[in-house]
Amino acid sequence: EENLLNTIFKTCDTESTGHVAVAKIIEFVQLTISCGSEDSGLQELHTMLDPERRDLSIDMDTYQAIMCEWIEHRRTKHLCYRADDVETQDELKAVDVPEFVLAEPSTNMTRFSLQARKPAWGDRETSDLISCIADLQHTHMRLLEDNMKLKGSREMADELNAKLVEQIDTLSMQLRSSQVLLQRDESLKDEIEELKRSLAKVEEEHAHTNVLNKQLKKDNLQLTSNMTTLQDEVVKLRSENDFLCKQEIESGITMEDIKKQLQELEAVAAERNNLLFEQRNNHLKEMMETVSEY
């Protein structure tokens, strides 16, 4: 009887949590003994397992204690009915009392002994119930084996998952490094573009400076030419001065007049020379200021 109760509990405890919902136990017993949900025996069992009908879940010890109490109560009740009316025994067994309740308790009920044992009352329903319980035990063992296989598969999956997590972490680090390198590359590209723009600007300024230098050289040549012209004019003036001196001597002009005229001519020549030099210096100064600005 204890082995039978354990089998029912383990069959209902599909997830091996050690707790089973009362409604699940009632449903299993109902299907096993083929009775309606309004059966008085099932209602009594439901009340004993869950007095307040709160959809409780119970453990193995509580389940066994209450089930043993209920079986004993139903057995006693059945014996009382037998004493009153023997003719109603078959009806009571089929409706109110499960066959494993009517059977005598056994301490050595295993899977094979359940199959070999004959019903206490020679009833076919009891034989079917015992056969069903044996099948359930076999199914339970197979489920345990499947569960072990699933646990092994789960452990392998956990190991694979851990490896995948490590690979993901490694790839994430590589991705971050690549992103940093890409950012640096973009920064270098921006710096290179900025340098290119600066270089283009410097080249443009250099070209402009070359143009100014060429202009300065041209102006310098022009000034040099002007200086040469002035020198030629000075020579010419001196020649004229000499000629005038001769004419003065010849015409009786005194030396003082000649000197005075010569001084005037030299003053004029010096003034023109100073003016040209001043113009040249001013022009050079303006050109240098322009170059400095660029």
From TrEMBL:
GO terms under biological process: actin filament organization; chromosome localization to nuclear envelope involved in homologous chromosome segregation; homologous chromosome pairing at meiosis; spindle assembly; spindle localization; telomere localization
GO CC annotation, single: meiotic spindle pole
Domain KASH5-like coiled-coil: 125-294
Sections of the chain in a coiled coil: 178-275
The Protein KASH5 EF-hand-like domain, residue ranges: 6-71
Matches recorded under Pfam families: EF-hand_9, KASH_CCD
Keywords: Coiled coil
Transmembrane segment boundaries: none
GO molecular function: dynein complex binding
Protein name: EF-hand domain-containing protein
Record organism: Petromyzon marinus
Species lineage: Eukaryota, Metazoa, Chordata, Craniata, Vertebrata
